[in-house]
Every structure is written in structure tokens, then in C-alpha cells.
Amino acid sequence: MTVFSIILQVFSLSIGTYYLFIAVFGFIPKRESAEEVFDKYNKFALIISAHNEEMVIGHMVDSLKKLDYPSDFYDIFVIADNCTDRTAEVAEEAGAIVYKRFNQEKRGKGHALEWMFAKLYAMEKQYDYISIFDADNLVSSNYLKAMNAQANKGYKVVQGYIDSKNPYDSWITSSYSFSFWCVNRIFQLPRYRLGLCCQLSGTGFIIAVDTLKKLGWGATCLTEDMEFTMKLALNDEKVAWAQDAVIYDEKPLTLIQSWRQRKRWMQGHMDVATRFFTKLVKKAVNDKDWTALDCAIYLVQPVRVLAMAVILFMSWAQTFYPDGNLGFIQMSYLFKSPVVWNVVVALQFLYTPFVLAFERKEFNRKMFISYLAYIVYQFTWIPITIQGMIDRKKTEWAHTVHTRQITIAEFEKNK
């Protein structure tokens, strides 16, 4: 047990230290070029994959129609995927070009996108980039302008800033919002600054059509965004970052909805990890490729969650065990002091408020109470991770119902 406890702690502490090192670069001010890169207006195909989204699809299409970008240089496409409601009609009335897809065997966003890409390739009008969205999103007016600037710098794949459409609706939506705000600042931005590969987040990203044709999509698992990110890393392509290209995403309202969604994420994560981890490690070693290694480290995050859970449980158990000895040695005690352990634990709960303050997010009394609940939310990742590992081979796709009806004008007015 002693050796096992030390291995767990070295593993967890090593990855945590690495993440901390990376995160620092998200806070260091960096001088950006004062000149906006403008070679041309790239042509964009904006694709929304929608399954029974009649409640929200109209407002999403409307926000895209109001982008501060020449209308001749982008078109809006909606995939009405296996819909049984009025999604197609509402989208068409809002001004989108609608394609209806019916396939009960190949269900899910990844399959729908692959189907749509083939149709785009065959069109007379050709595009430089494709941008992917979810039906419940709203998009900031400068989204395409910011993405176009990154495209003109030569980036082939770019992820935008995922913000929250409903951060104050419930403690669950607040918890999601805290997580995404932190990810943007301490995960995505520093990797972009270090020249590493950011992670695609399922919505609000662009892909160059020539890159998509060269590599093929093929990302049809439960987390198609993560799958395609790893495919890019193996093929020496990186996901860049556009801090000013903001997408407002609707977060689930209830713990049950959140549990189902995060379990699906974890199933997909484990599926991708089993297929890509070894390949990424081999590439990292053979090519001395830091990007591949960084992606491989990201894929073992579920294992780290479980390792930290075991460490925490054993630490508590040893504290309350009558004899005080379960053979579990905390590394901090090797240095004759529990200070190191206590600092590490404290940092897990203090960095989020720090990020929120840095991001200038509102942190009122209601948000403070939500943050206390956020601690509970974080602990729910433990059983969700276990379930995701067990069900990693299951590919059933559960649809999250979205009902938050708000226009981009109303949202920005109330921000």
C-alpha cells in the first residue's frame, strides 16, 4: 500500500504541476501585433447541427445573420438531423439553408457533420473555411472578423472563446460557467501562446476546407471534437485560439441533465484515450514533439481524477482510523510537514475565484453561494468518471433539451 500510495501521488502531483506551469502563461501579459492581419475576406460555410431544436434554432440563425462580416462571404447551413419537430421550418424561416437528414443507424453530431461536408464539397460555390456551431448557441457580432484574422495568419483550425448563455439560471449552469471560464484562461490561451495544440470544444471553431479534405473528418464518436483534435496532433496540425471570437453556449439546468451530458463526454474521452494515447506518446518520443505529449497528458485526465479521489479517500480514512495507520503515506509527510499537502488542497479551491476576478466576471453574493455548490459539482466528476470508463464502448447518443429562448440583442443588453 505504501508504494501504491506514493505512485498515485507522484502521478497526480506531476500532472498537476505540469498544468500549473502551462496555466501561468495565460496570465502573463503578451504584446500582440497592433496591425490587424488582413489579406482577404475568407469565405465561410457556417454549419449548425440540430436535432429537435425548434425552440432555439431561430435565435441562433438570427445571431449569425447579424455578424459584422460581409454577407456575401458567408452562408448559414442547418442540418435538421433526424428531427421530428419544426426545426427545419423555423431555421428556414430565419434565413438558413436547410438540409434534412434521416439516418437512425448513424446518429449523432459527428455523423451528421460528415454527411454535410460531403454535400459542401460537391457544391458549385466553394468555401475557404467551415465553422461549426450548436443550435443553442448565440454568437458575438465580431466572431467571423476575429476568425478571419486568425485564418489570414495561416492557421488552419481555430477554436473560439466559449462563454455562457445562462450563467445565473441555476447552480449547475453557474458551475459549468466557472469551468469554461477557467478552461479558456488556464488551458486554451496558454497553449496558444506556447505554440501547443488547443482543444476543440464542440462548437465555435473553424476548419480550413483544404485541411479537412486532406485529413478527412472521420470523427464520429461521442466526443467528435476531441477525436478530431487528436487526429490533427498526429498529423502535425494544431488548433489555434481566437480570444475575441465569442460563442455563448447554453448550459444544462439540472444535475440530472448535467450528469448525462458529462457522462457522455467521459465515455467519449475514454474511447478517444484508448485509441490515441499510445500513438501520441510514440509520436512524442520519435519526433520529440511536445504538442503530441501535451495531448497525451490531456487524455489521461480521467485516470488522474480517480487517482486524486483515492488519495483523498485514503487520507480521510487514515485520519479517522483508530490506529492512524493504513499504510498510506502522504508525500508531504516525507518532508516532515503537512504544509505541502494543505497548500495543494487549498489551491484546488482558490484558483477558480482568482480566474473569475482576472476575467472580470461578476462575483456577487449569488455567485459566491453558487461557488460553494461548484465544489460539490467538482466532486460529482468522480462517479461520472467511473461510469464513463465502464460505458466507454457504448455509443448511444442522448439529446439535451434546450429551452433558453433569448435573442443576441437581448443577451448583450442584459450582460
What are its keywords?
415 residues; alpha/beta; Spore Coat Polysaccharide Biosynthesis Protein SpsA, Chain A; 8-stranded mixed sheet; 15 helices; 12% strand
Describe this entry's structure for a reader.
- The protein is of the alpha/beta class.
- The chain has 15 helices and 8 strands.
- It has helices at residues 2-24, 57-65, 87-94, 109-121, 143-152, 171-193, 209-215, 224-234, 255-287, 290-299, 301-320, 339-358, 365-379, 381-390, 408-414; strands at 44-50, 74-81, 97-101, 129-134, 138-139, 157-164, 205-208, 239-249.
- It has an 8-stranded mixed sheet with strand order 3-2-1-4-7-6-8-5, with helices on both faces.
- α2 links the parallel β1 and β2 (74-81).
- The mean pLDDT is 87.
